[in-house]
Structures are given as C-alpha cells and as structure tokens.
Design a protein that fits this description.
Number of strands: 22
Shape: globular
Largest sheet: 15 strands, mixed
Strand content: 15-25%
C-alpha cells in the first residue's frame, strides 16, 4: 500500500528542485529541472553532496502550475491537524509557497495578477488532506476499493480538488519522462490528493458512551465557481455548486484526539494503534446538493434580482441524462428534493426541472397535493410502472419551502421529512466494522449494511434552504442510528436525550452551512439561527438581511476575480496554453467615458456635500451656492441613473473565461448607449476604447523588448 510521504525536504539548487523524504531514505528523490520543468526520479544517496541554496521542510506538494511566463511548484509549507477519524489524522492547508522555475527579471502585470489570484484563492479556500485516509471518497466507496493501490489512484476524480495541478506528476507517473518512457510508480508517494469543502470531527460522548462524529462536505471540481457566474449544468453533465456531504459516527474509534503516534508508531501511515481489541463500528449517511440540472443562468445587471435566462429542456436533455446517469451509478435511487418557489421569478426554473424529469422517467406519473395555504404543497413525479430504465430510479419531490415556513414557522419544514418517511426507511445507511482481524485484509471495512439511495436537494443557490433540509435529514438519520445501536429507545430523539450533544450537532451543521455558502456566495449562510438554536428569530431575520445586502455587493462588484481564481486553479483557463497575443487580459476594455461615470457620480456627491456643509458669510449671496448644489445634484442624479439603467456595464465580470450571456448583454448595452443616449452616445462612438487598446499593447511589448 503506497501512501503519500508525511515529511518531505525540498532542496533548491540553481538547476533544479529536489524533493526527498527523510523517513524513507531508500525512496527515490523527485527532481524537477530548472527552468525546463522536466521531471525525473533519481537515487537520493547520489544527491547528498549536491550544492544547494537552501533546504526547507514541507507538508506536501499541492501541484505544478504553468502561467504565462513561467512554471511554479506549489508546496504546502504549513498544515494544521484538525482531528483523527478512524485513527487517521486529517490536516487543513494553512500556508503555501510558490517555487518559480525561472528567476524573473522583468515585471509583467498579467503574471503578477495570476499569482495574486492563486495565492488569495489558496489562502481563503478550505482545503483538507490526509496521508493515510482517502478523504475524497465516502466510507461506503472506501469499503469497495483495493487498498493496495496508491492513495491518489483511489481518489474520486470529482473531489480530487488539485487534480489539474497534479497533472504533470500524474502524467510522469503514467507515461514517464525524458529518458524514462515508462510508468514511474516511484513518484506515487509525492502525489497528494486534496479536497475543498468542510471537515469537522468531534470526539465526544452521547449519554456517557464515547463516540466520534464527523461531518465532511466535498465540493466538486467540475463547474465550480461563484454564485451568479456558475449555474445549471454543462454539456458533460456537471452541476454547479455540487457538494457531497457525509455524516459519520464511529464507536470505539482509534485515538480520536490530536495526540502523537501510539501503538504501531508507523510514521509513514500515520494511523494510530488498536482499540483494545474492540470492533470499531462506522456508520455513515451521505447526501448531495447541486444546481437545477438544466441550462439556465442569472444575469447580473445591478438589480437586486438578476434576470433569469433559460434554454429549452430539449437542448439540455443530453447533459441532464449524463448527470443523472452518473448519480444513479454512484448512489442508486435519487430522491430529487426541489425547494424553489412555485410563484414569481423562480417558477420558470421549477417548471424546467419538472419537464426534464418527465422526459427522463418512462411513463411518468405526477401527483400534486394541496391544502388551504397553497395549491401545490407537494408535487411528485415517479414512474407509474415497474422500472424499465435506470432513469426510473429518479423520484422527484417538490416542496415550497418559503410558502410553508412563512412567518417564522420553520417547524413546518418537518412536513417534508414526514412525506419522505417511507423512502428514508428504505434508504438505509452504511454500517460497517473495522475489527482487529480486518487488518489482515489491509484494514478494509467489513460492510454489514449499505446505503441504497441518496437525497439530492436543491434550491436556487443550493445554500440556505438546502442547508436547513439537509440538517433535518441528517438529524432524522442520526436518531435512527442511535436507536439501532441501542443508545436510545425507539421513538425517542437525541435532542431530548443529551442537550450537550444536541448543541454540538446544531453548531456543526451551521458551520457546514457557512463554509459552503462562503465558497459559493462569498458570505455565511442564511437561516443559521434555525440550525444553531432550533427556532427562527427576529435577530436571525435581521442577520439574514445583512447577509443579503453583502451578497448583493460581492456578487456584483467582487465575484469576477473570485471566478477567475476558480478557473485558474482548476485549469478551466490555462495561461500557458492561451494565444501568444492574449496579453493584458485584465485590462478594462470599456470605453473611457463609460469607466468615468462612477467617478463623476462620486465627485458630484462630494461637491454636493461641500456645498451643503460649507459655512456661508452673513452678507454673501444665496443663489450662487444654491445653483452650485442644484447643478451637482443633477449631475449626480444623471450619473447614478445611467449606472443603474446600464448595470451590465458596471458588473465586475470574469475576465479569463467570459460568460456567453455576459458578453452578449455587454454588447447589447453598449449598442444601446451608442445609439440612444443623447449625451454619451456621440462621444462613445468617436472614442472607442478598442482603438487605443492595440496601441497600448504594442507600447507594452516594445517596453518589454527594451528591458
């Protein structure tokens, strides 16, 4: 069983970077040549006398990235232990360093911007890894894997967050390199899979019984991005904001604290010793979330509610088919819980989802349940015959969350759990044991019961409403687990049995909500007062209002660079593979007069405040100052009206991978300004920014040639 090295020394020389493991002196050294970036394995003992500039210790290699001018090796310089699960330590990436292959002599704006995007993204992104536990896979999938294969080869490709950055090392592993055109298994311990999301583990007790409870959320690396720049699905069937959340309960866990090595003392595996001969029981429950699987987008235009664009279900059918084909293959039956509003702007998205399920399921049968409050309390779609195709394993359940919980009546969300009671009973959960005898089999879990289906929940953002429902499903299943373990009597709930455990459970799920929301929307989640306290409060409603305003500002004015960082880290945009002339990609190419309007509005408001608050002499004339204030008030009003009316021109759009709807909307708005605006139209038409951009690029190229 090949596991990643826990300790790596990197030696920086003028012609190469050399990576070795002090705890494995017989292992080959990884050498990356400078400046070519060629990778090779060599005998570590032959490199002992090589002159190097510095030697440093790192926690692992995050990957290698090629930007416009150079390649950089990204190494993890600091990792924080967050806890042990089944005896395996899990770490969070805290600090990284970029090792350039070339010593850059000239300043390049785009290269510096690329580096700043990556560094900021890595610093703010919650990334986790383990040297001995496959954190990319659920416990159920781990039980089906061959543990003799290297850790990175067992990783789930969807959640192998640094898969693109590891491409150079993986290509060398599978194909070899210059002088060694054959697979190179010696590089396996240097390849370290990382997940992006949430990992929280608590060694605790329930009614005096020691247990370990963990919550893991893995975000998919496919179609990742920010709230309004990543919606729906792509042609390959990857859904936006797709997350897999696993709740794990472990009894008789091995060394669940943060202490050092005991038992076997195996430095390489990092797994603690035995649990006094007792069987370690592992119980796991998995849920997923993801954007509505059709082609749709929300187009920012500075209005609080963006415009929804929706393509036909016929166009998205192949993509949705690919998406659910993968979901059914991985999880079995899929219960599709849709929480969007049945009225207003969200109606079109709801209807498109239902039309897609109707097309996928053979002989679909729809049932609509209503009451005095709403005409569509529940809406279900299932096959009316025996399953004929794999897509007949889709079960659509619509629940209007906002309508049912209106007026702080959040307890009514329990109606959804009651409606799904039979499905949840049949769904089951993973129950397995890791006994001392199983170590003979390489430590693989012995499965006693499998989870047979999954609940896929969504709202518009797959954040706030989704978080509440997922925590309720997790609570229902955890009650069932404790009853099956004999820790509670049938019909009881853990919230009544152990208040301290209840408090910990609520905060763990609220933390998960905030982390998932931060990575997608840039803020914490709404409705976390319900998750943390069990009830909706007015203070929580005020906090949600603050979050809504913050989201509006971030999604319109700050998410462009965040989306660029996602695209750069995940390889959606590759500067090294871009066209040679694709320089100054971050230059603002709007007409100068369009760019100047916000500054004009700011100066106008400044002059208005100056005119209002400036002291006036007793014998001075009144009308000059009044005219001054009226004039600048009119200028400010015109400027703000222009900005709001042409909001597409002032959204901070992604620049590396422009969104088609953004490009289309921008050109339509520019055309409208040029043709219809009586003040700016003629000026913009004569002074297009594009005419000066070419001259600017040529001037920059000439300056670099001189340098």
């Amino acid at each position: 069983m090949t596991l990643p090295f826990r300790d790596i020394n990197v030696q920086a020389a003028s012609d190469s970077y050399i990576f070795t493991s002090p705890s494995s002196p017989n292992a080959p050294a990884l050498t990356i040549d400078r400046p070519t970036g060629d990778i090779r394995l060599s005998d570590a003992s032959l490199l002992a006398g090589k002159r190097v500039a510095r030697v440093s210790s790192i926690a692992g290699i995050l990957g290698v990235v090629r930007l416009r001018l150079d390649k950089y090796i990204i190494v993890i310089t600091k990792a924080q232990p967050v806890g042990r699960l089944r005896g395996h330590m899990v770490y969070k990436v805290v600090a990284t360093e970029f090792l350039p292959l070339r010593e850059r002599q000239i300043h390049d704006h785009d290269e510096d911007k690329f580096l700043n995007l990556l560094k900021g993204f890595i610093k703010s992104g919650p990334m986790y890894f383990s040297y001995s536990l496959d954190v990319t896979n659920t416990s159920q999938r781990q039980a089906q894997h061959d543990l003799s294969t290297p850790l990175w080869q067992r990783a789930d490709d969807r959640f192998f967050w640094n898969r693109f950055l590891q491409s150079d090392l993986i290509n060398f592993r599978t194909k070899g390199g210059r002088g060694s055109p054959a697979p190179q298994p010696g590089i396996d311990p240097y390849i370290l899979p990382v997940i992006f999301g949430m990992f929280e583990v608590h060694p605790t007790t329930f009614k005096g019984t020691p247990i370990t409870i963990a919550l893991i959320t893995r975000r998919s690396r496919h179609r990742a991005g920010t709230r309004y720049f990543s919606r729906g699905i792509d042609a390959e069937g990857h859904a936006s904001n797709y997350n897999e959340t696993e709740q794990i309960v472990v009894l008789n866990d091995r060394g669940s604290g943060l202490g050092g090595f005991t038992g076997s003392g195996d430095m390489q595996s990092g797994k603690l010793g035995g649990s006094d001969g007792k069987e370690m029981q592992v119980l796991s429950y998995v849920q997923t979330r993801g954007s509505v699987p059709v082609y749709w987008a929300e187009v920012n235009n500075l209005k609080y509610t963006p415009t929804i664009q929706l393509k036909s279900t016929e166009a998205a059918f192949p993509a949705a088919k690919a998406h659910f084909d993968e979901q059914i293959r991985l999880y079995g039956d899929n219960y599709l819980v849709n929480l969007v509003n049945q009225k207003g702007r969200e109606t079109r998205v709801k209807l498109a989802y239902e039309q897609m399920v109707d097309r996928l399921v053979s002989s679909p049968k729809e049932r609509v349940q209503s009451d005095a409050l709403t005409d569509e309390k529940f809406h279900t779609i299932e096959t009316s015959t025996k399953p004929q195709t794999s897509f007949d394993r889709l079960h659509y359940i619509y629940f209007d969350f906002h309508a049912e919980t209106k007026g702080l009546q959040m307890h009514r969300a329990q109606l959804l759990i009651d409606r799904m009671h039979e499905a949840l009973i049949a769904q089951q959960y993973l129950r397995a044991v890791d006994s001392p005898a199983s170590q003979v089999n390489g430590g693989r879990l012995e499965v006693r019961n499998l989870q047979r289906s999954v609940v896929r929940t969504n709202c518009m953002d797959c954040l706030d409403r989704t978080n509440v429902v997922q925590s309720m499903l997790a609570r229902w299943t955890l009650d069932r687990m404790f009853i099956d373990l004999g820790l509670m009597t049938r019909g009881s709930q853990f919230k009544d049995e152990d208040p301290a455990f209840e408090f910990m459970f609520r905060n763990m799920w609220a933390d998960n909500a905030d982390i998932v929301s931060n990575s997608y929307a840039g803020t914490g989640a709404m409705k976390t007062d319900l998750t943390r306290t069990g009830k909706r409060t007015k203070a929580g409603a005020l906090a949600d209002a603050n979050i809504a305003v913050t989201r509006y500002c971030k999604n319109n004015f700050f998410d462009g660079p965040r989306q660029d960082a996602f695209d750069l880290f995940l390889g959606v945009y590759q500067p090294g593979a871009a066209n040679i002339g694709s320089q100054l990609v971050f230059v603002d190419r709007r007409p100068v007069l369009i760019q100047a309007i916000p500054y004009l509005a700011a100066f106008s408001l400044f002059f208005v405040f100056v005119g209002i608050w400036t002291p006036r002499l007793p014998d001075s004339a009144v009308w000059p100052m009044r005219l001054f204030i009226i004039f600048w008030t009119a200028v400010a009003a015109w400027s703000l009206t222009f900005i709001i009316s042409n909001g597409m021109l002032y959204v901070n759009w992604p620049k590396l991978v422009p969104r088609p709807w953004a490009v289309e909307g921008y050109h339509e708005t520019i055309t409208k300004v040029v043709r219809k605006d009586k003040i700016l139209g003629p000026l913009v038409a004569k002074h297009e920014r594009g005419l000066s951009t070419a001259r600017y690029i040529n001037a920059e190229e000439g300056k670099k040639r001189i340098e």
